[in-house]
Amino acid sequence: MSDDEQAIRAVVDTWLAASQAGDTATVLSLMTDDVVFTVPGREPFGKEMFAAASESLKEMRMEGASEIVELQILGQWAFIRNHIRIAITPPGGKVQRRSGYTLTLLRKEADGKWRLARDANMVTQES
Q1: Of 18, 27, 40, 107, which one has the fewest beta carbons inside 10 Å?
Q2: pTM, whole model, 2 decimals?
Q3: Gene3D superfamilies attached here (predicted)?
């Protein structure tokens, strides 16, 4: 496994651990400043809106797992096809389970770190 592949896998692992810990600052540090998220049912959004949405979820408990299905490095860009399963529990509420695939583009920035640049998230509510 190349150093770049190890670094990209570390981004995924760190993102998941920080999300579960409610560590929004760490998650934001894993994104480019011009990141774009695409999710069903809403207009694409960037880092600022992601941060605001994350703050509104701080009271919820989140557990999850991700499996990288495909990872390709193409120079200073890479993509990941990933399968995610998450469980979100609001305070005193019922667990909401979601799962699905994401297609994520990462960019190696001037500091040598890989960061998430584009993300198409197809995770939906499990029935």
Answers
A1: 40
A2: 0.91
A3: 3.10.450.50
